[in-house]
Specification:
Blueprint (H helix, E strand, L loop, with lengths): L7 E3 L16 H12 L8 H7 L4 H13 L3 E9 L5 E9 L6 H9 L10 H9 L1 H4 L7 H16 L4 H9 L9 H11 L11 E5 L6 E2 L27 H24 L1
Helix pairs in contact: 1-3, 2-3, 5-7, 7-9
Length: 267
């Protein structure tokens, strides 16, 4: 396995696996792709690590991975992830899909247009309900009640609510007495459900498989940049002048104008 947060990432919307998933690849590439497909998310799929597990050298594996990428099963890049404390950082990603995808699909994936797999929140919701009685004893729930109501709490979490948000909604202004705790909790979870937040696209950047240069998806067909595909790069506009250069040039012009005025005054 790779370090936490790195390694293989399964792209979304894969079709169910069949024995023909990689039949369009050469035998070596098909065998390597099938091996990658069996690995769990987070597995280290670098060339160096794969060479220790498979009967191929690092050069052969590098070539094979590039062919697997060109066939639409693999993309390399970086993604901005947010930690629990709110901080963000860019990390290396290698996305794999057993279902071959074209460049348009990978472009949409980079924008976040393709649905993402979400981490289940049921256990988190169940824990909140099971401990609800500590905050409000009149809302103590049974195991069966927690299991039934957990999906409703999970929906709150999916819409960005925190545990404190849910607890306030459930415990503020309780009637006296509470005749049926589970019914009251269900009513409040349903009637006070917050609205869906506006979706935020993920921050992802694809990189050339050969040289690692970052670029927009449309400039990396097949996962390679124009230079690595043997195409001439478009001419780049001249770099803008620095502020210091502009300042020095303006000083030279002012000095020249001053000399001319002095010369005219003496004639």
């Amino acid at each position: 396995m790779a370090n936490p947060g790195y390694g293989k990432r399964t792209a979304s919307e894969q079709l169910p696996g069949t024995k023909h998933d990689f039949a369009h690849l050469p035998p070596r590439e098909a065998a390597i792709a099938a091996y990658l497909d069996r690995l769990p998310d987070g597995a280290d799929i670098s060339v160096k690590t794969l060479a220790k597990q498979l009967p191929y050298g690092q050069c052969a594996l590098g070539t094979a991975l590039n062919r697997i990428q060109q066939a639409g099963h693999l993309r390399r890049g970086r993604e901005c992830v947010t930690a629990d404390d709110g901080s963000s950082r860019w990390i290396t990603r290698t996305w794999f899909t057993r279902t071959a995808r074209d460049d348009d699909w990978w472009t949409a994936f980079t924008r976040g247009d393709v649905p993402k797999q979400q981490r289940p929140t049921r256990s988190r919701a169940h824990i909140l309900l099971a401990t609800l009685g500590r905050t409000a004893p009149v809302l103590s729930l049974s195991e069966a009640d927690c299991a039934t109501l957990a999906p409703l709490v999970a929906e709150w979490f999916a819409r960005g609510a925190s545990e404190d948000d849910v607890l306030r909604a459930l415990t503020a202004g309780l009637p006296t007495p509470v005749h049926h705790a589970a019914a009251l909790v269900r009513t409040r979870l349903t009637s006070k459900l917050p609205p869906q937040p506006a979706p935020r696209p993920p921050l992802r950047v694809l990189e050339c498989a050969n040289c690692g240069a970052p670029g927009h998806p449309e400039t990396l067909p097949g996962g390679r940049c124009s230079a690595c595909r043997g195409e001439r790069a478009p001419a780049q506009p001249p770099a803008p002048l620095s502020a210091l250069t502009i300042h020095d040039r303006a000083a030279e012009i002012r000095a020249a104008m001053s000399r001319r005025r002095q010369e005219r005054a003496h004639t």
